[in-house]
Amino acid sequence: MSSLQRNDKAAAMKPNRAVRVDPSMVDRAWRVMPVGCNGEFNLPKSHSMVLDRGRGCLVWDAAGREFIDFSMGWGSALVGHARSEVVHAVVERAVQGSNFAHTNTASVPLAEELVRLSPACQLVRFCASGTEATMYCMRLARAYLERPAILKFEGGYHGANDEGTISVFPTGRTPFPKPEPTSAGVPHADVLVAPFNNLEATQAIVREHGDRVAAIIVEPFHRCLPPVRGFLEGLRELTLSRNILLIFDEVVTGFRLAYGGAQERYGVVPDLVAYGKALGGGMPIGAYGGRADIMELVREDRLGQRGYVWTASTLGGNPVSCAAALAALGVYRRPGTYERLFALGEYFREGLRRELVHSGHPGQVIGDGPLAQIVFSTESIVDTRSMLSADREKGRAMMLALVEEGVFLNPMGTKLYLSLAHDEAVCDEFCRRLARVLARLVRA
Prior knowledge:
Aspartate Aminotransferase, domain 2; 14 strands; Aspartate Aminotransferase, domain 1; single chain
């Protein structure tokens, strides 16, 4: 039970409106790290913090301030922070050795469970992150079909690898299928870009460029947008008809939308799949797998042969992360887990919608399962380009104001993560703080 629930603390907590910074730890971070951060949050120094600890759905910074967490390690802590089963597994395993860079007694049963739960995975390998997992999937596809191009969807994020950073934050002015680099320093990547949820446009691109395309990679649940009816099924038919591989990036959807992830929820089986985030229960891990004939390309006894694919990860499959993952999967398998996550997600999104209506700010709430996003736009949102109609300045102002109210989240987007540690009382408290924020925001 969180401290928010005990003694009705949620109603009594005072927000951090006047954001105080720890003059020691924050300044130290800014001296040795770019903007005092390890990436993406883009917090101004006035809002900067250095986190110290977390439990359940709460985190505390070095200055002792408590925050309700709606980032949850960008969704990696689906079980909640410091979940007892995961902590026990990590401690018990760490004293036996933290890494051997080799197959071990924790990685084998985890691989067996991934093969059991995923209809796509006949063979799997481990790595240290989702970024590695998607990178290896794309490399395998190119080697297997001996084609250079990958087709992705505008706005889709497939990790910090070169292909993953193409068209992540697009301007909306680049014609499809031309790629739009989000990051400098990325060499030319052979990537084609299509609009998500637009099967017709994707088919047209494949008709013109299909002989070059090795794979279509997709987040089945695109950022916070669900696939329209028939879209994923259409991608599966299209790739089969053109001998193109289909890659599901399940780094976010894996274990979040169902125990079997998007494959289970949407009933579509890809050729390759990438995992990360929630798999590790908050510990670093990545995994990728797929059809045996594709995965066989990574066998080291093929070194020097045509089609051999190099994949190796020093920390991939380390016994501590694998033990944490096995513990997390045990939590996810418990009866009622996904019914609870979906019910809580719908309760939360309804609360957000109610506050938007009461505030008079035009907007909408999107998401599914334990995911939600406030979009300040009244237009139909089906893909990244339609998302550009949103008032992003207002969205960022809202997120920064929520930080001031004692909510920890990522202001570079408006995506909110729930976990098994959240409950209705926590969602209600978020909505109370949101109401105060919306009352202060200037209406367009």
